[in-house]
Amino acid sequence: MNKIGLIIKREYFTRVKKKSFIIMTILGPLLIVGFLSITILISTKQEKDYKVLVLDEGDLFSNKLRNSDRYKLSWAPEGSYSDIQELFKKDENYDLLLYLPSNIVQTNSMTAKCLYKEVPSMSAQKHLSSVINEAIELYRLKEAKISEESYRSIKTRINLDIIDIQHKENKNIQKRAIVGYFFGFIVYIFIFMFGVQVMKGVIEEKTNRIIEIVVSSVKPFELLMGKIIGIAMVGLTQFAGWVIISMILMFTIFSIYFPNQYNAATQTEIETQELASLNSQGKITDIIEFSEVSDFLLNDINWLLMIGLFIFYFLGGYLLYGGLMAAIGSAVDNETDTQQFMFPMSLPLVFAIAISQVVITNPMSSIAFWLSEIPFTSPIIMLVRVAMGVGNGGIPVWELILSMFLLIIAFILTTYIASKIYRIGILMYGKKASYKEIIKWLRYK
Predict the structure, then answer these.
(1) What domains, with CATH codes, occur in the chain?
(2) Burial level of 91, CB count in 10 A (0-12/13-18/19+)?
(3) Integer angstrom CA distances of residue 441 from 69, 223, 255, 445
(4) Which of 251, 265, 329, 339 is the most exposed place for a label (fewest CB within 10 A)?
(5) Is the dihedral of CA 333, 339, 343, 344 positive or negative?
(6) How many other C-beta atoms lie within 10 A of the C-beta of residue 109?
(7) Can you state the angle between helices 397-425 and 366-373, rounded to 10 degrees?
(8) In Å, how far from its chain's centre is CA 117?
(9) Mean pLDDT in residue range 241-246
(10) Using CA atoms, how far apart are residues 385 and 401, in angstroms rounded to an integer?
(11) Partners of 100 in beta bridges
(12) The pLDDT of residue 427 is above 90
């Protein structure tokens, strides 16, 4: 055990002291947060103001089309549809031409047309659709002699809360699953990133013939375990660094751009006319959505449970696949020869990432259950399901315990198999190993 500890210490400090490790530990969160920030900034800045020329063929919607600061509506002069199109082509002041045929209010199957010079954004298309639908509603209210105030008082928007009958509370299930998918994706990246390091390290030691000296004083199994555990500790160290730096960056960004987001006193100072002004600019929706997302992330996610299970499933998944990657590294002489073994081994993880969408849609299905129990896919699928809740209307606790138990058993079994391949493969040179050859190695005692 003392020898394993020495190997762990060597593998850990050798990699942690590298400049590449320090740079990626700092640069990783900066790239992630920076990428997200730039994406949000670009998407915000790209939202342009539109000047819309409206051709109301039946003259049905005068004073019924809602105007706003970002979408300036102007009525087209009298003329045919083709004449207005020519006018729109020549007039550079207008970005869009909104055509409302005279029979648009007769049935619900009629469509309006939006002609453009440059493709409008999705938000612009949604806004214009809502404006047209609202105008048609107002027109039909007038025709039916129903006051707009009466209509507004009875028009409602229903939100469907999914509530477990026994525990009375289990909201935002699919939203939580997305958080679980994020954790699962990080596990997927880390398993490959650090598993490949194990494989490359074994190939390098084997190629340099250093391994011949090392195995004279250390058993192959001890060397394998020390290498795997040492690199796992490197992965956890880097993840901890990413979490700390990311939290500092996010807190800094929120404090700069949203300084009064959680100040109750400031929130109460917003008067009705200010809200109306924000609404006319299309900003009130952004504030509400941001508040909902913030409340969801802070209150609906059990971060302690998620981080704890992330560490367990990362370690379990890494030890499971890391041992196999070490075995692959010992069975080949260069990285090129690893391709025939890497594809079938990595297929379960790739499949787990791909099938996660099905699990999010139906977390209690039989395929979700089995994939969260099978050790080769459970490190990703179980994190998706756990994010939806454990017990109290979420997945049963026994499923989580069984998944963890099976992952531990699989890790022990695969490590035993990998060690048998490793002890023979590390001393084999100049011969490409085939599947048939590897099976023979497993039979050696």
Answers:
(1) 50-154 (3.40.190.10), 167-284+298-443 (no CATH)
(2) exposed
(3) 74, 18, 60, 9
(4) 265
(5) negative
(6) 5
(7) 40
(8) 35
(9) 83
(10) 13
(11) 56
(12) no
